[in-house]
Write a structure and sequence with these properties.
Layout: E1 2-3, E2 12-15, E3 19-29, E4 37-44, E5 50-56, E6 60-63, E7 67-77, E8 80-85, E9 91-95, H1 96-99, E10 111-117, E11 120-125, E12 129-137, E13 150-155, E14 160-164, E15 172-176, E16 182-185
Antiparallel strand pairs: 1-6, 2-3, 2-6, 3-4, 4-5, 7-8, 7-10, 8-9, 10-11, 12-13, 12-15, 13-14, 15-16
Subcellular location: Cytoplasm
Domain Elongation factor P C-terminal: 130-185
InterPro entries: Elong-fact-P_C, NA-bd_OB-fold, Rib_uL2_dom2, Transl_elong_fac_P/YeiP, Transl_elong_KOW-like, Transl_elong_P/YeiP_cen, Transl_elong_P/YeiP_CS, Transl_elongation_fac_P
């Protein structure tokens, strides 16, 4: 248990019958009249939904302990992603729902942050950008270098993104894992 006066960004609270909410931002407000209160912006750990919630100052709230560990993606086993703890070498099977959009950017050997609460995997978080090879894209045409157009390209993971016209098959590119945006070429 913690008091609303002790809130910090990133803290995870257990509210509304056990739902986990991460504190995105908070503000202590002391109006001229009436009691002080804490205005918060909370993000659901499971769904990602963001809500505003106001607490009276000093109210007790239940905190949850989230265990975040860097784990290396090893291989796919049916619908499960198998991760290996880099310290203990224990293997953890994570279902596709918990991996979410991170599945679009995972290849063997990548390190991801796996968040667990009471032994249950909540989500898998990748770095903001990853470097992947273009498996297939239509060839560029001479003169395409100055225009601002884009074309579809398939990454080595099978995920499709939009890239500039001058990118060709076999090139390594940097991709934003949150938006699937092309960020640039990676020089070899």
């Amino acid at each position: 248990m913690a008091s609303t006066n002790d809130l910090k960004n990133g803290m995870v609270l257990k509210l509304d019958g056990g739902q986990l909410w991460s504190v995105v931002e908070f503000q202590h407000v002391k109006p001229g009249k009436g009691p002080a209160f804490v205005r918060t912006k909370l993000k659901s750990v499971l769904s990602g939904k963001v809500v505003d919630k106001t607490f009276n100052a000093g109210t007790k709230v239940e905190t949850a302990t989230i265990d975040r560990r860097d784990m290396q993606f090893s291989y796919m086993d049916g619908d499960y992603f198998v991760f290996m703890d880099e310290e203990t070498y224990d293997q953890l099977m994570v279902d596709r729902k918990s991996v979410g959009d991170a599945a679009n950017f995972l290849i063997e050997g990548f390190t991801a942050s796996v968040a667990q609460h009471e032994g249950e995997v909540l989500y898998v978080e990748l770095p903001a950008a990853v470097e992947l090879v273009i498996k297939h894209t239509d060839p560029g045409v001479q003169g395409d270098r100055s225009t601002g157009g884009t074309k579809p390209a398939t990454l080595e993971t099978g995920h499709e993104i939009q890239v500039p016209l001058f990118i060709s098959t076999g090139e390594k590119v940097k991709v934003d894992t949150r938006t699937s945006d092309y960020l640039g070429r990676v020089n070899k």
